[in-house]
Amino acid sequence: MRVVIAGGSGLIGSALSSVLVAEGHQVRVLSRNPERVGGLPEAVQIAQWDGESTDALGPLLDGVDAVVQLAGAGIGDSRWSEERKRLIRESRVRSSRAVAEALSVPGAPRILVQGSAVGYYGARGDEKLDESAAPGDDFLARTCVAWEAASASVEAVGVRRATARTGLVLARDGGALPRMALPFKLFAGGPAGRGSQWLPWIHIDDEVAALRFLLENDASGPFNLTAPNPVTNRVFSRALGSALRRPSFVPAPAFALRLALGEMSTLVLDGQRAVPERLSELGFSFRFSEAEAALRDLYA
To answer: What is the count of structural domains for the chain?
Structure first.
């Protein structure tokens, strides 16, 4: 299979590229700044794309079988000013719209895996959320709704589109986990805020396996890419402390997190009890179903 990964230099795209190449697939990663991309296998072709130009994207899809659209500004990279929120939303919408336009012409790839996130559902307390749940109405939810809608038009021209609503991806050397682990390593770790908020997590190996599953099988529509057993922040903190052999009883007060992070504190103080109902129905098997086992694997 010949696959283009837009936004493929990030945590998920890099891991997916490495696995696909190791299995003999051809991979082309699209990046705004190819000269800054590192850590990918030599067999991966890296091409420049500005994230919004359809004309520039079209030639990069010649002879390609499938596209994975992960492009977008990092959600947790900096405090959410109004300008930052605009960039987070528009970078996702514009890149997905350009992908959809490029796939609408004859001869274009017929498979699209569209990135999204469980933030689609908003903060819903203890409600168990499968893919049929309605969207929320906060900033992240509205962003995810627009993100997904931007490429929906491809279905009318015969493109199989699977939407990957990803949770917190656990990886030792990238993403949010190293930042979460730092207080524990300093013997100051514990739950965030009340600790009862749900944390929809997934091990990086299962994230990559699920994306491959969506590429290779007759799967369309939305899919929650989360482990089948979400846990509360308090339970996750205990598991993380245990994996690091550190205590986990020093809470981070909600008011302090709101003061430090502003609106972005929703990333740690709110959550979704999302479950991968549709992946399970299609027979996908998770390697890591329990948070304790996933964290032990990463910090063995």
So the answer is: 1
